[in-house]
Fold these 3 entries.
Entry 1:
Amino acid sequence: MSARSWLVTSALTAAAVTLVGCAGPATEPSATPAAEPAHWSYDGDTGPASWADVDSSFETCAAGTDQSPIDLPATVPAPSTSIELSAEDTDGDVFDSGHAMEFESDGEGETLTFGGDEYSLQQMHAHVPSEHTVNGQPAAAELHLVNADADGKLLVLGVLVTEGAASDALAPFIEAATHEADDEDVTLDVSAVLPASLENYEYSGSLTTPPCTEDVQWVVLSTPISMSAEQIGTLEGAHSHNARPTQPLGDRTVVGGTAELG
Ligand SMILES: [Zn+2]
């Protein structure tokens, strides 16, 4: 197997890991119903406080000590690392995962280098309102750009969103989210989605959806981007309050970082 195909295969495996808990009503029925992931939600008996009870494979959601999201400090710690981001367009398709509107990359576009390791963009999805808070305050929305390295290690780039001017770069994603058709092809210019300042918070956390798997590197940009009220409303119309409450920081440390577009 070539290095390239190994990378793609590993990346797809990682993407499958991130999606395993996200199979909701929009997912096609499996041939083996017993193998379907248990149903979880953001409300009531199957909501965030009960995720570990929904399925034994979700136990990390309650037992984990490095969970996400978290409340971030008002002041960004001084930068101690630097990320390099490529500025390539990424092709993929937009669909409803059952828990969020999602753009799934073909795995051939945007890449980033963190700690000497190269990651490629697997998918992007939206939470309304934000999952991470800053000094206790949520933002209107949050985008998660899920990246994986060749070993399947995940790095999620979090982008907070405030209401303001429309985002032209996100228009194709949001436009596709308004359509009934599944799997709409979209090209995303990730570098144009990001804010001018790439200063960020970094910490080790988890998936914010079941199975809440840990050892996920989080990079949350401290400068929000803006989307119009209409754009946020479109995402909210698809999935509202799909945000897990913040989790205890525990023994972890939030450090600062910078990033630059290559
Ligand atoms: Zn997410």
Entry 2:
Amino acid sequence: MENRMAGGCVCGAVRFEVDGDPMFCSNCHCRECQRASGSAFMPLMGFLREAVRISGEVTYFTRMADSGTAETEGFCPICGARLFAHAEAYEGVFLVRAGCLDDPSLYKPQADIYTSSAQAWDHMDPNLPKFPKMPPMKA
Ligand SMILES: [Zn+2]
Ligand SMILES: [Zn+2]
């Protein structure tokens, strides 16, 4: 497999490149991912922060998660595409949205997370493990 994933936003102002494979790949069905995407879930890839190189200007928006810790979303200020996220609770982990990859077929989901808020019209792969909230993280 090609070891370098790359991608960008809709307008092309923000580009990124990633070294190595993701630590995890999860489809997140939480309400915030639904709101942020306007859809049923967000396909998330978790990388070490230093593995992701970003070019272009990214606007970051921080909110309080249900855990009471800060979560930050990164989006393109021009086209609004949401590319990145990181959470205070998972320091050092940088999330990249798989739909922003130049080749989204590289994304191999390993789990469905926050399935407690998944929608009835959201058809999940029955073969993937399901977690009602966050899965236990192995650091
Ligand atoms: Zn853009
Ligand atoms: Zn989510």
Entry 3:
Amino acid sequence: MGAEWPTDLLDVDALLARGFRPVPFQQFVLKVHSRCDLSCEYCFVYAMADQTWRSTAGRMPFTVLEKTAARIAEHVERHGLPRIDVTLHGGEPLLAGGEFLATAAATLRARVPAPVTVGLQTNAVRLDEELLTTFAEHDIRVGVSIDGPAEAHDANRRFADGRGSHAHTAKGLELLRDKRFRHLYGGLLCVIPLDTDPVRTYDALLDHEPPAIDLLLPHANWTTPPRRGYGDWLAAVFDRWYDAPTRRTSIRLFEEIINLFLGGSSRVESVGLSPVALLVVDTGGSFEQVDSLRSAYHGAARTGLNVFDDSMDTALAHPAIAARQIGTRALADACLSCDILDICGGGYYPHRYREGIGFRNPSVYCPDLTRLIKHVAGRVHADLRRIQP
Ligand code: SF4
């Protein structure tokens, strides 16, 4: 490991000796193309601290795809996993071409001895009828990144020449909603546009009739802190969504906070204390941690392991991956004494980073998480009191 690694790395051998048992990976992100056709302001792959994309291959070579499928199969077999999820990611995955994406889905399903859900996350700029017909044939679900109304989206999500991409993305979404392809529609991913009215943003997303929306906090940490106001922004969207006479879409962040408040466990990384069971395979076959760690520092997502030389069980024992599986044991003292710890869970791991210290800090979004969680809990609590005799 390089000198840039944080100083709070875990001693995994000691953890194992004390009874820590890693949770096998069940979600895999395959970076099938390392380039993108947009130049988004906030992109953690191209615009932030980590610049490793400069040295990675364009499209994932077939040898890497084959070996990745074999490694996943080995992992599934060893742990008796009942099913797995694979996301074909990038850069921009559509740059890999329909034929490659179809081959990726077919290869994974042929090799892995369990059902495989295959999806991709795209900017939809290149989404057309031919690609969607291929995705329908290979049951590949499509998630689309869009940041609300045109002016919000185009402020960040631009082509290299400065043109906004909203019109292209909206056109792709219109095709995806066609009755021939609607069943492939996974949902929308929106990086919160703080300068745009929250309700207007939510209503603009609803125009695309998404089955689900993921609202993401922009990547930030204590070394490169965010602006303030995200908690208020999210609380306003929550009220619009929660008070609607009919539920028109699922918003995962809100549903998970309610679920945790009612005593359940979380299925997302951004809240709760559930172990993270996700592994990224880079275009060249390297195992990486969650991609958004690239926002912290150069090389932050690296593990030094790869599909050709290492099993996925070896990646499970990597200190930085173990840190995201051990729940409260990885948290800062301030989080351990926090009254909403069970719901917040210390926030999304990359948001905890501070140069010179590492990740054992509260989330840099702590005030926003506190505002949102207390708001959601207050609304749900009031409703529960109303229906109790
Ligand atoms: S990040 Fe803040 S709100 Fe979350 S558990 Fe830590 S102290 Fe509590």
